[in-house]
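Example 3.2
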Amino acid sequence: MRVLLCLLLLFAAGAANAQSTGRRFVSVAFHDVVDTREELTTDAVTSDKLVRFFDWLKGTGWTVVSLDDVLAAQQGKRPLPDKAILLTFDDGYRSLYTRVFPLLKIYRYPAVAAVVGTWMEGGPDSIVRYGEFDVPRSKFITWAEAREMQASGLVEFASHSYDLHWGARANPQGNAVPAARTWRYDPATERYENDPAHRARIRADLDRSRRQIATGLGRAPRALVWPFGRFSGPALEEAKKAGFSFAFTLEAEPADAGGPLALHRYFPNLNPALGEIADNLRFDVEAPETVRVACIALDSLAALNGPAQDAALGTMIENLRTLGANKVVIDGQAARPSPGAALGDVFFPSRLRPMKADLLSRAAWQLRSRANVEVYLHLPLQAAVAAVGEAGVPVLYADMLRHAAADGIVVEAPGQPPSAASTHKNAVRKRRAALDPATLDPASRQALNVYRAATAIDPLLRLMLASPVRVGPADWADYVLLPPVADANALAAAASELRAQGWLRPEFAGHVILGMPTAAGAQVDGLRRAQHQGATGFALCPAMPALPPSAALAAAFSAATFPYRP
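Structure, written as tokens:
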């Protein structure tokens, strides 16, 4: 079995490389560039770091490409070189003209620069609203400077929206979610934006941005850089209709010219060292991902109101930080009378089920922004089918994703046959997109249909399949979540079984998440023994342990390398 799996791995890797040859590249999303460390903000780098990076590109065989090169590769006219990189600079900071442009001319590097419409308006002494702050208009470039950079042939300007670079109110509690991703909540009417209104708002903004840039630079932009890298499915459709042929995200992974409306970029924030930037430009992962999942329910929060609910949510967030989870699965349903009962109340507005409390959106966004975790949303599949029918479940999930911004969803599906296909995120997405539901068993077909309905709302969602048996990752899922075991011996045995099958190799280990024992005393011992087998993914599911966690559990479970607890 091991020999066969190794041969399959080599074949699959070669096939994947052959398929992507000439189209895959990396892109970097720089923002402001400053001269001293005292001037640094979270999204800035110092000019000496940028110079070192440009020197490193020149000296290590990288080719800096333009959008014309990406288009040629997309159309099959001219392949991209093996080490191709696209440079982008967001927000239109003044440093684009004073620091970046002179370097581009010296190195003869092309770049894409994205400007926000409202930040380009007004005279030099005026004030613009930058996020939550009022800043001088002089912080950003002028149209005259933009025209000079465009005329050089080195800088292509993209839209960063006209006025979507802010957080729109997304729920009754007042959380602000990126404006291109959320269905806005109006506290005056206590109603959410509907789909036509959401589309109209996004389209009006993008049309205005294109007109503004066409007036300022003589031509409309062909590229759109989504603010914060977040957008909805309907927003993406409106971008296509508006005339954009390229769109950029902030997903830290390679880009593919074959998917021009989802070009991923690495964002080097906090002024990283050159070595860190270089590591993030590698296509191949040398070590498996460390995954620590905690599953939570919202019933205890729903039983509280106002300040008491806020305090309980804050305590939950701090306990999760102490635990060191880096992924959290939130149940979108209220507790049912028994595990086999049909789905009852939910924690989000839905056309199909009664709402117990409008709480999921707030919990998801607070966890993402304050606990620094990826958030996955879950509804029990068969309970949902029993409540709304198979055709209604995708609608239910779509309702959930409209009202709660997340990183992925969790859906139950049976074990999958072994596969040695590439686990790169883009490769997984392509296989998932090409999958024919008719070839799947009923539960897997339901899971795929649910996922597709959810990504019609949020195209960047990842998929975690909850499997009732121990298997390797399905080649169309990002992760497989395995059921909890009885004790430490069972967890070690599960890891040993997966290792023998080849699923704890570095290519796969980070995609297989082992359910830990429910008994607190067995968790640390079982985790350590499973780690010795090569396991790197563990979950405290279906329910998180009593919080705050013990010091021993936090130290063993935490995804942080140092210190143990973030």
